[in-house]
Amino acid sequence: MPDTVPLIDLVHEDAHLLVLNKPAGLLCVPGRGEDKQDCLSARAVQRWPDALVVHRLDMATSGLVLMARGAAMQRALGDAFANRTVHKRYEAVVDGAMPVRDEWSVIDAPLIADWPRRPLQKVDPAGKPSLTRWRALSSSVSNGCNGAATHVLLEPLTGRSHQLRVHLLSIGHPILGDALYGSAQVQARAPRLLLHASELSFVHPATQQMLNFESAPAFSLSTARP
Question: Picking from 40-44, 142-146, 210-214, which range would have the lowest pLDDT averaged per residue?
């Protein structure tokens, strides 16, 4: 009988938690409709029946996802995220040239749901406080000013929906391939959303060991189209 269990990119497994590498285009949890039932959590439960969701990545975003094994560990890891003791780092390729330097910059822009266009978010003074650290790693110009792109590191200090995508858009550098927030030109410059959750660091709630996991993105600055 052929193996019908969908493939899972396992980064770490122990008796208490899992770290998985989610591909772009796969939901973290089931959506509405029969065509949206295949997702990372459903695949995980087939292999680890006690696997529970702790946090999510957007469907278009790839990278590291942490899952708990059992309700007690889900609560403990959920508290760690709520208390901002989980270090998260992302990598993205964005439109335009950003200054490359060693110092980190901060985007401080409150976010709120854009109700007429749900599930989109927008910057609004009445929104929830939202902070993102960023640092440009490298920049290239392949076709004049219009062909510029920048590879950036991102650290969300808060966990708002679509935070990284909206924050980068707000400073004039949307993520390439972003079908929700990018213009037609921005969408056409990449085959997918060029956003990847590349690092997770946290204290293991059961062992008190400091854990650090890294995952390199499948894209680079050269992925950007002119």
Answer: 142-146
